[in-house]
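Hi W., the adenosine-5'-diphosphate complex you wanted:
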Amino acid sequence: MNPLSYSQLISNISSGEVKSLLLIPKRRQVIVTLNNGSKEIVSILPDDQQILEVAKISNVPLEVKDVREEEAMAGMLGNLGLVVIVVLGLSFLLRRSAQAANRAMGFTRTDARLKPLTSIDIRFEDVEGIDDAKLELEEVITFLRHPETFTKLGAKIPKGVLLVGLPGTGKTLLAKAIAGEAGVPFFSIAGSEFVELFVGVGASRVRDMFKKAKEKSPCLIFIDEIDSVGRQRGAGIGGGNDEREQTLNQLLTEMDGFADNSGVIVLAATNRADVLDTALMRPGRFDRTIFVNLPDKKGREGILSVHARSRPLADEVRLSDWALRTPGFSGAQLSNLLNEAAILTARENKTQITNKQIEFALERITLGLASPPLQDDSKKRLIAYHEIGHALVAAHMPHADKVDKVSILPRTGGIGGFTRFWPDEEAIDSGLFSKNYLFARLVVALGGRAAELIVFGPNEITQGASSDLQNVSSIAREMVTKFGFSPLGPIALETGNKQVFLGKNLIQTKPTYADSTGKVIDEQVRTLANTAMLKAVGILESQREVMDKLVDVLIVEETLNAEQFRRLAELEHMPQN
Ligand code: ADP
Ligand code: ZN
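Structure:
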């Protein structure tokens, strides 16, 4: 259809074909709505009068639209938009810089980290295996619950308690349990969060935290990794750290500043009390130190049972066995053990955790992930002899630990195979190891190398024994220098703790013995190792046939459990040592 012409429009209006007209003078246009609903735009003359008349005569409704108004509106809106954007943008910028300034000035009062936990559902019964620490902290709970009982008697309650223990021993858990038992708010912050880019932020954060805590008293503040702020001042490489010192000073000021019995108790955790600034330990500050030790066997069983509460175990699982097999595990590692086992169980679509999954989890945690079995037969053979060497020597040393499992399944991280022992429950619990036991450890550790030597000859021995040898050196050295187990006599020549932490003890301490004594120590260590080696070789030579048979089976089976091993090693008639 052709566009409507002006003259056509006039005639259409006259003939009544047009429904309505919308005149837009500024654009010199008229928008025509025809009777059939379709619309046309027709140009008109400036100040057109004719169309007005025609429309009037024909009684066609005509509207005039003043677009100027519209445009003015649109223009205003446009400007307004700009203004709005500018204002928003400005305030955004302002806010950003205000935030930065606040952060630098320490005015971040809305800091989410300073919000306390108020309803903690952790209780003392969820913490197992660290009974000593629990006992000492019971008093703190009573205080938080009924401070009046103490204040009435004029008793002073420690403001600060330092929890010292390895990572994962349950320090955080313990602190939470105290807050949970007492039903008080729990503020928690890590020492590293205090140490920020800007000098002074840490200090103001400390100030804020104490202010908030006092408002909520009675309550508990938990500072994790306090060593990251509380290090010996002026120590460490490159001199002091201004920010850390300011933070520490602020912490000390706050602790001195709040009145005794104000209802705020600060618990701080660290695994290196030895690097802490002594000022922290003064009376009225952290004047109580509680050691949180690794759990003993009974403790481990308790921790396992806490974490087994929420996990369905098969009837065959005896947690006491698993507690025995996990010496040196922290609470966190034990919890992880059951968690890994639960994951494996879920993956196998089973409904109950059995010994098999826990075993798997234990090996994954202690040895790393399993890698595919070795294809190279001669390597497999060598590793089998090495591991059987350890196991067989252990079986024939009266004071050695019992063999639990031998395996030649490799692990990622370079472990070719392993021999696992049942640790001596009593020795581990009491912490007392006899000279006989330690010597047996040396012989067993050298069993692998001894087997390689006998079977493959002195030139084919491998470096696979290197970690065994390191074990031997450190045990033998301790026997000589610390425990007085050598002809050198009952003197301790080296102190117990290895002081290799940063800051306080970068400078090596000098040994407390003369150079000539050092030589004698080396000789004694060597003698011990050589004697142990001879013993291991002697045992394996007398057991050569049994060793060969065991190796043949191990190569096929790839792992032997305690029972299989005892049967094949012809140990059934022997008493279990
Ligand atoms: P830490 O603060 O000493 O590093 P955590 O308290 O954070 O250790 O421990 C981590 C987790 O390990 C806890 O949440 C808990 O599940 C488990 N755990 C650690 N110690 C124990 C314990 N003594 N009893 C029960 N569970 C524990
Ligand atoms: Zn070995």
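The radius of gyration is 41 Å.

W.
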